[in-house]
Write a structure and sequence with these properties.
The complex is a heterodimer of chains A (about 100) and B (about 575). With about 100 residues, chain A is α+β, with helices and mostly antiparallel strands. Helices cover about 30% and strands about 25% of the residues of chain A. The chains are: A alpha+beta (about 100), B alpha/beta (about 575).
Chain lengths: ~100, ~575
Amino acid sequence: MKGKDNNGSTEYVLRLFITGASPNSARAVANLKSICETYIKDRYALEVIDVYQQRQLAKEEQIVAMPLLIIKQPLPEKRLIGDMSDMQKVLKGLGITF
Amino acid sequence: MAHQINNDVVLQERVLKKVQTGISGLDEITGGGIPAGRPTLVCGGPGSGKTLLSTEFIVRGITEFNEPGVFVTFEEKTEELTTNVASLGFDLQGLQSAGLLKIDHVHVDRDEIQETGEYDLEGLFIRLGHAIDTIGAKRVVLDTVESLFSGLQDRFILRAELKRLFQWLKEKQVTAIVTAEKGVDTLTREGLEEYVSDCVILLDQRVTDKIATRLLRIVKYRGSVHGTNEYPFLIDEEGLAVLPVTSLKLENTVAQERVPSGIPSLDKMLGGNGFFKGSSILVSGTSGTGKTSIAACFANEACSRGESCIYFAFEESPPQIIRNMRSIGIDLEPHVKSGLLHIHASRPTLYGLEMHLVTIHKMVKTRKPSTVIIDPVSNLTTVGTVSEVKSMLTRLMDFFQNEGITVLMTALNTPDRELDQSISSLVDTWLLLKDMETNGERNRGMYIMKSRGMKHSNQVREFVITDKGLELVDVYMGPEGILTGSARVAQQLQEETEKVLRAQAASRKEMVVERRRRVLEAKIAGLREEFESMQEELNRTYTEEDLKSEIQKDNRSRLARNRHS
């Protein structure tokens, strides 16, 4: 597994934008949490943001398709959309390869 | 009965409400604008003017109808859009600061985005909803929503989401313009016309002979009558302008007033007074027959009356026209200096037909001339087919007639005489100039092919251009037809000679008679003298005899007295 030599600090900064309790949103939260817990446990910071509550964020963060995961760290910044059900793609986005 | 009333109310509510776009001409074609509270699809190829039309829709909405607007741009960045339309006098930045406009650049890049399962476009809905709600927008533009298809892969989701978006726009009660790229065989590349079906406007740009013409057509307008033609439109420094092909009614008022042509002999041919004011005159002829001279003469005459005139020259530059006309005794320069005459010279190939049309429109609208010259209209066929030129001229004639402007057009006759034949039906007066080639020389002939509503001469006249101006001369009829030029002059000379000879012959006869008269008079005088001397002789004889008899009587009495004494 990569990133082993990182001394326990927050290696992954993730922001997940969702829309209330829509099925896609709920699935995305569940799927992402499961992936993170499995592969990068204790090395990530995940912030789940409900855009319905902060509508101006949609423009600020250039959001179109949702749910949207922005991987702020590690750089470069990456954007993933969807309910995070395609685990391979999510892992690839996180830079985790086998 | 109550049921009936109810029905009427329902019907009233169902009548389609329209929103004026504020785009010149478009509201006329659509009979009042685009459907209120519904999305309208504007499709067309790249560079066909979609973005501009939508921008103007938003800007006019704010400035003219007090309706704030949201512009969602998928292709251009906000700054790019602002810069691009600044040249048209649209101050997007100012409108944004005033809180009347929101521009949102929606950027979707396939390379930056990984799709990891089911998603929706709720983000777009939120953005749009937020923008609409913050400024209370009544108008929305999505330009070009199809870009999403290149940024996102799942077409199934996109279609479903766009369908939902259009439905949502209706629920939001905003009047929206959704632009889309034209497909190969379809109106839009992604078949958006399936979802936005109330009103579809197609923009097109066609290039014929390297000249581009922009065209607009209302493909569909549910629940409304609309013009179905292709309407030329153009983009200039004031935005977009669509030109209705013709005003469908022929209800123009006409004037009885006449305007002189500047050639008295021509006026005489036209019943003595010239053309009708506000009528259209076509002067056609082969090259070098003096079309421009007639046009300049007419312009000069109008300016000399103190009226304003615009001369649209498609062949010569203003200095050229002024110099050439001076050589025939027409000085246009003072009129140009006084501002009465405006010569607008442009190459026909400079821009498309409709642009010419609008240039003429605009200039006439601002300068308000009484007379317009177009010299020559036939040159416009280099930028359009004969039927296109005719359609353009129809609109132009209509416009002039409405404005009460007298227009004189010249047309070069091509051997097949296609153009002047086809436009002759549009004009009120048609003067035909003709080359008459006889006896090794070329002369100009003119006749009036038609002149609606006035008595006019049916005679062919020789059209003479001298350094003192233009003149129409009666042609001579000879045994071989009409005589012009030298033949006419020869005929004239011959007649003059005859006149002189006749005069001389007459005076010689007179002299003979005079001489005879004098001889006779002398004779009469002689005879009278003879007679007088004879009479005198006779008188003398009488006196002598009287004297003699008296003396004798005296003598006798004296003798008698002597005898008696």
